[in-house]
Amino acid sequence: MRMLINSPETVVADALRGMAAAHPELDVDVERRVVVRRDARDGGRVGLVSGGGSGHEPLHAGFVGYGMLSAACPGEVFTSPVPDQVLRAAAAVDSGQGVLFIVKNYTGDVLNFEMAAELAEEDGLRVERVLVDDDVAVTDSLYTAGRRGTGATLFVERIAGAAAEEGAPLERVAELARRVNAASRSFGVALGACTTPAKGSATFELPDGELELGVGIHGEPGRERRAMMPAREIAEVAVGAVLEDLAQVGPADGPVLALVNGMGATPLLELYGFHAEVARVLAERGVPVARTLVGNYVTSLDMAGCSVTLCRADGELLRLWDTPVRTAALRWGC
Amino acid sequence: MRDAEFFGRWMSAAAAAVEREADRLTELDSPIGDADHGSNLLRGFTAVRAALEAEPPAAPGAVLALAGRTLISTVGGASGPLYGTLLRRTGKELGDAAEVSDEALRKALYTGVGAVAQLGGAAPGDKTMLDALVPGVAALTTSYRAAADAAENGALATVPMQARKGRASYLGERSIGHQDPGATSSALLLGALADVAEAQDGAEAR
Which residues 134-193 in chain A show a CB within 8 A of chain B? Predict the structure, then answer.
């Protein structure tokens, strides 16, 4: 497998050097692996820190900036950051108003952020944590590590970031973040595996003419393998799974935010075609869509495939969603 | 009795075993994980070796505490906190004595493994490192080699298990038929302990 890299050992550091060169508005510590918005401590806002394994770009560093994250801690590829990174990020963004950790629900992320939170609290910081666990493909949370955090992370980071930017206190920002997560569900599909730099070959074999349903974002196989289907049928499976689970939240009482997300190797041409089918299924089921994002936001290296995330958004969440945001990968209104 | 140098040799032997087996650990991590267990542990144990060489602690407990802290700061993922906690907690139990008995080490490791179970929320049978560590530490009453063998057998016994913790658990029944990479690396750690203990005991007997 050919990769546009110098060496597998330096992929994360090299990417951070690139971010530093492209985005002078970010303070990128390549050595210690922390990306901080330069004005993080101005204005006395609540700090938002997220992070996770690399390989999901633009998540998380691409979402650092005005109206979204204060800092991100990229780990090795598909490996959560270490507590030292998170602690450093928390100290760099805390202006006395407290810090919210946004953590995707994977054992490694949970443990490392937990250790970091303990250390930060020992240092006198106020820390709240919110877990993102939106993936409906993990059906039996009693016998698993629980639902994975995937596409909803973008919704949580945007809406919590908007509230923090407006000066909301820590408890309020954390409550909004939890509300967004509780109202969001995702489902992923892979048309091919991904290649980690460390291994240099595909993480699993997917024969021609088959696809994986219910995949996560780490190149792990999904719950089920089926014969390849056209986009219209994939959309029915994915949207159906998300809506069925979302119904457990309660009766639909408003529109949704929709994220049709590419896994890394699927062209936008295909993603938009797929989104046409997603929009059709939602219309057929009477679900109004308030806002839509189509693109590569929560990726899995070079995996081919997509995911669908829906978030039931009331008026308040929608208002926050629409406020200005200025990051490397998401920007509007300013 | 085992002194700080013995514990330094153990960590060094563990680092060598991880280096030797890194590709196999990553290979095991491919079908049911994310293909990086070998490279992550290699990064961690390489850092452990460097930290211990830079400033060798004077007590067994301090060696394991430093090794554990280093793993937590360099590995990431779940294995960083879990292996780090195993070594830190074991080191804490050993206290600051300059030499410790085999019985003290056995009891300390027992406590360390308990801390891993508590942190990860797993139990034997969940297809995790505990499936090697729990039988391994139990067999320490017999000998270090018996512990290493029990851990190795425990790792092999994860093949037919369905994972209930960690990333492999997302696969449900599809996790069956694969050996758990964490249990495999745990067996390496106890294997390294048996090697250095036998080397010391053999030298003393001569």
Answer: 137-138, 140, 143-145, 148
